[in-house]
Design goal:
The protein is mainly alpha-helical. Helix content is about 85%, strand content about 0%.
């Protein structure tokens, strides 16, 4: 099993692993959000009355929200 030559090398390896895991997490999150938007669009097409009611509720929430 190879060992890191110094603590700095070990820290660099940990940072590289963190960056790759962050990139992978961002890719998974982007994929999830794309699929979620697609599912919402499909639901809106299939149930237009419910989608309209949801839009109206959302608009009312935005009007009453205090910035």
């Amino acid at each position: 099993m190879p060992k890191a030559d110094s603590p700095a090398d070990a820290a660099q390896d940990a940072q590289d692993a963190q960056e790759t895991s962050d990139a992978a997490r961002r890719r998974r999150r982007a994929q999830f959000l794309r699929e979620l938007a697609e599912a919402r669009a499909l639901r809106d097409r299939v149930q237009p009355r419910r989608a309209k009611a949801a839009r109206l509720r959302h608009a009312m929430r935005m009007r009453t929200f205090r910035w």
